[in-house]
Here is the input.
Amino acid sequence: MWQSEKGVVTSSVRHNDGTCVVRVFTLSYGMVPFIFYLSKKGKKASRNTLIQPMTQIEFETDYIPSATLMKMRDIKNAKPYKEIPFNPKKSAISLFMSEYLTHALSREQSNPGLFDYIVKSIGWLDNANEGKFANFHLLFALGVSSYTGICPNTDEYRPGYLLNLREGNFIPSPPGHNDYADANLSYKIALLAGADFDTMSDIPLTGAERVEILNILNHYFRLHIPSFPILKSIEVLQAVFG
Here is the structure.
């Protein structure tokens, strides 16, 4: 039975000359792979832009849990962006968001709270003023991890404590392994974890610190999320915000 659905596109991969496999984080079902039939001619070809990463879409689906690829039809752009496609910095962040979500949520089931957080986050980024979103990608990654249950626990943080990447907690002295952040970066990560999008620009981070924190978070997610890779989009963000 066909039903209306909402989702955020996280990736699209060409399947053959006429189709793509599109991964969409949906409101009702979580992360779902869909088969998308490409349009090649005329005005209909513009519908191919609907599967660009981080596009918010409304569509109909005949969801069958046992199916490998789901079907979709009547796809519409639910929220056209006014700046993200045209602002190089925001486009770079959007690329990171899509790659991060594709891997971080690959097994995620329905999570309405997380879906709402993603939608509100991308909307905030689209409307953000220049100079206010340099820390956005770091806060977003931590924010998503709080919904999936792997965000570092800041309750035990004290000045000088270190983030133990394996356990996701803050400790007073180095653990018996190398998977930890130094005191300065641990402090900055704790600040980010407690901030929101409107206050994150108050956190003093140098370009070098952003790069280091991003790499630390990538390593952290690799420790806690099965098959999580070294994200390719990190190099783009380093070039833009480093």
Notes: The mean pLDDT is 95. The chain has two domains: 3-77, 88-241.
